[in-house]
Amino acid sequence: MIRQERRNFEAGAKVWVQRYENLRNLAHWHFEDELVVCQQGEARLLLGGQVYDLQAGGCAFVSRESVHSINGAPGSRVAVAQFTGLIDADCCLREPVFADRYRAGERLNELCRESREKRPFYAGKMNAVITSLLVDIFRGEPLAERTEAAHPTLARYKQLLTLLEQQEDDCTFAQAAEFMHMSEAYFSRYFKRMTGLTFSGYLNVLRVDKAVQILAAEPQITMAELMARCGFNTLRNFNRVFKEVTGYAPSRLPAHYSLDRRVLQSEGSTFDPTLATSIPLTE
Fold first, then answer.
1. Residue 40: beta bridge partners?
2. What pLDDT score was predicted for residue 59?
3. Is the pTM of this model over 0.70?
4. Would strands 77-83 and 33-40 be described as parallel, antiparallel, or unpaired?
């Protein structure tokens, strides 16, 4: 589900931070800038159609509105911070990946402790720590002008993703290519480069996510009805794809399982693209 991620920032804080073991998330984008630090093992970052391999001590700066995803290797530990309104909006890093010469991993750990312990004035301390870190990074790395010029292809791509989520059963590969004003061959390459998935693989993830939600709401539903409502033609194919995506057969899906985690708040729906196999670290 490649769509906008929306985080709940704590009152007064301009940064959200979390450390994970085995971090894996879906391709997504958000209006905040993001700093990713690989603290242990290795992780693969898909950013704007390019693949970057982060080793321990590697960092990545993800500019706002960039489509990206992270796939951590087993045993990896990755810290992620999202922030807004803290750095000069007119510049960005020339290269998104760089070595941690700024104690970034250590300072994100400090942010996590402040967020967890919530001692007096913790939000102000968090803002100060992330601002100091960003200033060090922007002073130490080559910069480029941040361009806010419209990117019609990317804008249309985001529209397509929204359309697919709303009506995945009614949009064919040919229609999607036509919507993007691309030949089918070029669209196939473009979509795989941007998402890491084939078009059919992406639709399968959408359909399985829909099946998971239906199962949670209607646990007594028959597999035949569930299959039909989620756009699969045969039970054999449904069972195969469902297990490939979730690791479970539909009839053996654990209670409260979710392919991704969503919460609702009064201002609207928020979206956390982090897969449930990721383990948040609390120390």
1. 77
2. 98
3. no
4. antiparallel
